[in-house]
Amino acid sequence: MTITFDAPSKDKAELETGPAFTPRFDEHGLVTAVVTDAKDGELLMVAHMNAQSLALTIETGIAHYWSRSRQSLWKKGETSGNLQTVVEMRTDCDQDAVWLKVSVAGHDATCHTGRRSCFYRTVSNGKDGAELTITGGAPQFDPAAVYSKN
After folding, report:
1. Domain-located, residue 133
2. Domain around 36
3. Where's the Phosphoribosyl-AMP cyclohydrolase domain (predicted)?
């Protein structure tokens, strides 16, 4: 079975409360995907999905995204082994973003830096302007070793 998406309803009430999932892709054909850990709710990453990656995610239960930098479909964890199994998917009120609650396999790390979350740095106002401080812990795997397999 292949999932396709109908055009979003022009009726605001139908879009916001109706039963049809009709994602509102942007001018680049993408929706924003916010990804959190299903167990503890930690924000793991933010990515983008096109119609193909969204359909594959729904069909397989494994998170797929669209890489804007590589301009290609991306099965999260395919190289690292840290696959994201979707526990629940939600959409926002106007269906232009999705929220994936996932369980991460392997090292339970999502970031390509080897860390659990891509949000491992805090931003603060320092003496020379905005500064970044690593607060998200050490990498859980060596990215050079994992990604050199390609």
Report:
1. no
2. 12-113
3. 45-120
